[in-house]
């Protein structure tokens, strides 16, 4: 996990960018630990939480539920959740479930 806090150039608030790199499978056996990890990674104030999925080989419904839950907790804090570089299978799963329309996904 990497946290970057760029210095504001014009007196604006600092935007915290946190990146969490995931790998392996996200399933019913790993989703509880993932939820705890992402909750700890949520910035305290306005910011961006990037979840790098480039090394995730599998994700089931419990993994999707974790991502949706984290997004619901992030929004009131002013945090934007972004899913980065999902593999084609996960991209398809997000599209088929319609989650690509409510979660921010970037290549």
Automatic annotation (TrEMBL):
Xref: CDD domains = STAS_anti-anti-sigma_factors
Tell me the keywords, alphabetical order: Membrane, Transmembrane, Transmembrane helix
Q: Does the keyword Transmembrane apply?
A: yes
STAS domain boundaries: 17-107
Name the InterPro entries for this protein: Anti-sigma_ant, MlaB-like_STAS, STAS_dom, STAS_dom_sf
Looking up PROSITE patterns in the UniProt record yields: STAS
Listed transmembrane segments: 46-70
Task: Indicate the family of this protein.
Answer: Belongs to the anti-sigma-factor antagonist family.
What protein is this chain from?
A: Anti-sigma factor antagonist
